[in-house]
Amino acid sequence: MDLFDLAGAASGPAREDMGPGAVLLRGRALASERELLAGIAAVAAEAPFRHMRTPGGFEMSVAMTSCGEAGWVTDRRGYRYERCDPASGAPWPPMPEVFAALAQASAAEAGFPDFAPDACLINRYAPGARMSLHQDKDEQDFSRPIVSVSLGLPCTFQFGGAARSDPVRKYELRHGDVVVWGGPSRLYYHGVLRLKDGEHPLTGGLRYNLTFRGAL
Ligand code: MD6
Ligand code: FE
């Protein structure tokens, strides 16, 4: 056993394969945790978190906002990307530099060297909030990966397959973890189980997730 194994035994491997084209980079966002959280606060000051409604009329338990050239929205008319925040009519706040840099570098490490996200959806989970099994399929071009950053309280992430009925594997996503997925698993079903109570030194009782997409 060498030093690398010893470090791995204590903290888990830095890189875990989740499936074809899907990689979990443990702790990849830790070095920029404070700048990322400051970026979330700056975006939310302009485009506040809100609980949107699904086309079926249900209010989502996850609160959301967006930044970048386009934001993801849902209402009675459906799921889509919009260049302006429907709450204000103004363009979504620009994507903070530190967001774009982390997304690009993480994608490159996972084998997608030219990823330039134009949209970042920010999810905020309070205890009890969940996201049921879904596909991310509102983007224009599925050859581009999605980069997902977890901050604050840990969650249980379910990662399935191409069909809703495929078996799911569970991963604990912790503060600072980054998931990059593209290629064959780009359209795989995934979701987040009900968030458990907890206390995180930087986010209190909340979990944040940033998902970077090429939407337009
Ligand atoms: C979340 N994430 O982690 C929800 N989608 O809160 C997602 O729905 C997601 O993490 C596509 C790719 C990565 C993700
Ligand atoms: Fe998703």
What's the gist of this structure?
With 216 residues, the protein is of the alpha+beta class.
Description of the structure:
It is a single chain. The chain is globular and about 45 Å long. The protein contains three helices and 13 strands. The chain has one domain: Alpha-ketoglutarate-dependent dioxygenase AlkB-like (Jelly Rolls). The protein is an alpha+beta fold and 216 residues long. The strands form three sheets. A seven-stranded antiparallel β-sheet has the order 1-2-11-8-13-6-3, with helices on one face. The protein has a four-stranded antiparallel β-sheet with strand order 7-12-9-10, with no helix packed on it. Strands 4-5 form a two-stranded antiparallel sheet. Bound molecules: N-[(3-hydroxypyridin-2-yl)carbonyl]glycine and fe (iii) ion. Fe (iii) ion binds next to loops. Its cofactor is Fe(2+). One of its GO terms (biological process) is methylation. This is Alkylated DNA repair protein (DNA oxidative demethylase). Keywords: Dioxygenase, Iron, Metal-binding, Methyltransferase, Oxidoreductase, Transferase. GO terms for molecular function: broad specificity oxidative DNA demethylase activity; ferrous iron binding; methyltransferase activity; oxidative RNA demethylase activity.
